[in-house]
Amino acid sequence: MRIAITRAVSPALADCELTHLARSPIDLRLAEKQHAAYESALRELGCRVERLPVAPAYPDSVFVEDCALVLDEIAVITRPGAVSRRGEVAEIDAALASHRSLLRIEAPFTLDGGDVLRLDRTLFVGLSSRSSAEAVARLDTLIRPHGYRAKGLPIRNCLHLKSAVSLVGEKLLLLNPDWVDPALFPDHDSIEVDPGEAHAANALLLDGRIILPAVHTGTRTRLEAAGLESLPLDVSELAKAEGGVTCCSLIVEER
Ligand code: CIR
Predict the structure, then answer these.
(1) How many CA atoms lie within 13 A of 30 on its CB side?
(2) CB under 6 Å to ligand 1: residues?
(3) Distance from the CA of 60 to the center of ligand 1, in angstroms?
(4) CA atoms 145, 74, 200, 12: torsion sign
(5) Strand extents, DSSP E, 73-208
(6) Reduced to 3 DSSP states, what percent helix, strand and coil does the chain have, rounded to the nearest 5?
(7) Tens place of pLDDT for every residue, the chain, 255 residues?
(8) What pTM did the predictor assign?
(9) How far is ligand 1, taken at its centre, from the CA of residue 69, in Å?
(10) What's the CA dihedral at 84, 86, 87, 93 to 10 degrees?
(11) Measured between alpha carbons, how far is 119 from 123 in angstroms, rounded to an integer?
């Protein structure tokens, strides 16, 4: 059984953190509808959705990915880089405790789950404004006994590593070469996003299908040309809050 942990859209979403985007009006009702459609897509792809309660005090709390790393044997509760997001982890900690033994990134380190791309037993971590090299070293120390390692990677002009690259097939990445250097992943092939779609590299691979924002039609064509099946979703309002499709769920493979 595969579980997807999600969290209801906060009524304060319009007060979200923004790093690379200008603030633009968010239609909260539409954001909620889009989030519900995202949850339906997760169900269609075989997940049981566990939606955590709404957190009005935390504008970005719908973006649960940033609060934890769920590995096969353990989970790591993060300490988000944005001060406004630190309190989000308590609910995630409680939700994951029944699924995994938990390790925790503690102060002074900061790390966002959106910076972490797991490839086999290596966790690649974007050295972003949210995740520091010291946090990567701490993560490495925590996970080594469980057979994983963590490695920091440079990224540029984007919020998180997974804004720039995500896994779309076995040994196959979707990436934006302007934001992360493809040469950093010598063991993987890659498909580049359509040059007009900088934000298209964040895709969620589940059950052999790829959830991708519907707006990225050129990148979708590229995926299809490579024989990959995508599931386009309209997530315009979540994108205005600088959220992608990976960041609205934590996927837990139940053993
Ligand atoms: C933030 O800046 O933290 C939120 N507005 C967006 C977080 C998106 N998270 C993700 O892509 N993993």
Answers:
(1) 12
(2) 16-17, 19, 60, 63, 65-66, 82, 85, 114, 160, 241-244, 247
(3) 7
(4) negative
(5) 74-77, 101-104, 116-119, 122-127, 149-154, 165-169, 172-175, 189-192, 204-206
(6) 35, 30, 40
(7) 999 999 999 999 999 999 999 999 999 999 999 999 999 999 999 999 999 999 999 999 999 999 999 999 999 999 999 999 999 999 999 999 999 999 999 999 999 999 999 999 999 999 999 999 999 999 999 999 999 999 999 999 999 999 999 999 999 999 999 999 999 999 999 999 999 999 999 999 999 999 999 999 999 999 999 999 999 999 999 999 999 999 999 999 997
(8) 0.97
(9) 15
(10) 150
(11) 6
Q: Which atom of ligand 1 is nearest to the CA of 18?
A: 2
- Burial of 108 by CB count in 10 Å (0-12 exposed, 13-18 middle, 19+ buried)? exposed
Q: Enter the tokens of residue 25.
A: 């009006």
User: DSSP string of 176-191?
Assistant: -TTTS-GGG-TTSEEE
